[in-house]
Design a protein that fits this description.
By secondary structure, the protein is an alpha/beta fold. The strands form 4 sheets. The chain has an 8-stranded mixed sheet with strand order 2-1-5-10-11-12-13-14, sandwiched between helices. The chain has a two-stranded antiparallel sheet with strand order 3-4. A two-stranded antiparallel ribbon has the order 6-7. Helix 1 packs across helix 2. The radius of gyration is 18 Å and the shape is globular. The termini are far apart.
Length: 259
């Protein structure tokens, strides 16, 4: 039976969702990470514990939140704690298994920019900023990042380092005493990239179906390393697509003020 039709964003979201194991405690960013994390909760990982920066613990939103302050998160959470407790007890206490983040730019060592595009003092674009991302990237046991892949996002040199990935590569992260593994995967609309175990430089390890290797190389702002054997990401299943589309439709109706 041929694969059901799906979009590049759906492929990316499904591939990212599959990275979450059942029972994982996950600190979730708004946007693409939130869609992937909630898809995981609604499919293969019903016991994943989703935490957002505003304090909801084990939230189970019926629709995707507009922001960390969306009331849907607090209303469907098992508990809501203060932001100081969230950071001091949960993050710095080593209780977050995965930090799930988005980005405007990343570099080859998975450092993240969400602050400005261009010069800091006279930027061409001012981005949302850091929020809790620097602490999430530093203190989570591991970090997943999802974003669309193109040369504006995958850059040789970041315009601003908002959150630390693997810094200058190698053991530079551990030498600064950062806990956890740092970024362990980047999931894009073209494929999946993981850091080299020694150098920590990103390496393409999986191509999404019907994506040519040349397209990924052309969408990267540095000479991208490629694994000796590249896997093919399994296409979304009908169930994954149905659940994701239903979630997105409910969200669109809710945000439009419809019942």
């Amino acid at each position: 039976m041929p694969d059901a039709p799906y979009t590049a964003d759906e492929m990316m979201t499904v591939a990212a969702a599959r990275m979450l194991r059942n029972g994982t405690v996950c600190f979730v960013g708004i946007g693409l990470p939130s869609a992937a994390a909630n898809l995981a909760r609604l499919t293969h990982a019903p016991d994943v514990v989703l935490i957002y920066e505003s304090g909801p613990i084990a939230t189970k939103p019926a629709v995707l939140p507009l922001s960390i302050g969306d009331g849907e998160l607090a209303e469907t959470a098992d508990a809501v704690v203060s932001i100081p407790e969230m950071f001091a007890y949960w993050l710095q206490g080593g209780r977050i298994d995965i930090g799930f983040l988005g980005a405007a730019q990343i570099d080859r060592f998975v450092n993240i920019n969400t602050t400005v595009i261009g010069d800091y003092n006279t930027p061409s674009t001012r981005l949302p900023g850091a929020g809790g991302a620097p602490e999430i990237a530093t203190s989570s046991k591991e970090v997943l990042i999802t974003l669309r892949q193109n040369k504006r996002a995958f850059v040789e040199k970041l315009d601003f380092v908002t959150s630390a990935g693997h810094l200058n590569g190698g053991d530079s992260r551990s030498r600064l005493g950062f806990p956890g593994k740092g970024p362990t995967a980047v999931i894009t609309d073209l494929g999946i990239l993981t850091p080299d175990p020694l150098t920590k430089e990103l390496m393409l390890t999986s191509l999404h179906p019907r994506i040519a290797l040349s397209r990924v190389l052309d969408a990267t702002g540095w000479p991208l390393k490629v694994a000796s054997e590249i896997a093919t990401t399994p296409a979304p299943t009908a169930t994954e697509l149905d659940v994701l589309r239903d979630l997105q439709q409910r969200t669109a109706r809710a945000h439009a003020g419809q019942a």
